[in-house]
Write a structure and sequence with these properties.
mainly beta
Length: 67
């Protein structure tokens, strides 16, 4: 997660790494994890991702999101 200051500068709030299996396997497909910054163990906040299965598939996909 980044914070955009509006003048083109960005500050890193924190990072969270996971896989689609963790998201889809979470209770009600709602994944929650802490945002960590620079290898620190201090939480910068929480990230919540809610997913919904639209169609069954064995196709492999890779996503990288930056907000």
């Amino acid at each position: 997660m980044i914070d955009a200051d509006g003048n083109g500068d960005f500050d890193l709030i924190g990072e969270c790494y996971t896989n689609m299996g963790a998201v889809m396997g979470a209770k009600m497909q709602m994944f929650q994890d802490k945002l960590l910054k620079g290898g620190s163990t201090k939480s910068q906040g929480n990230l919540i991702v809610r997913a919904e299965a639209v169609q069954a598939s064995n196709t492999c996909a890779r996503f990288k999101f930056r907000w």
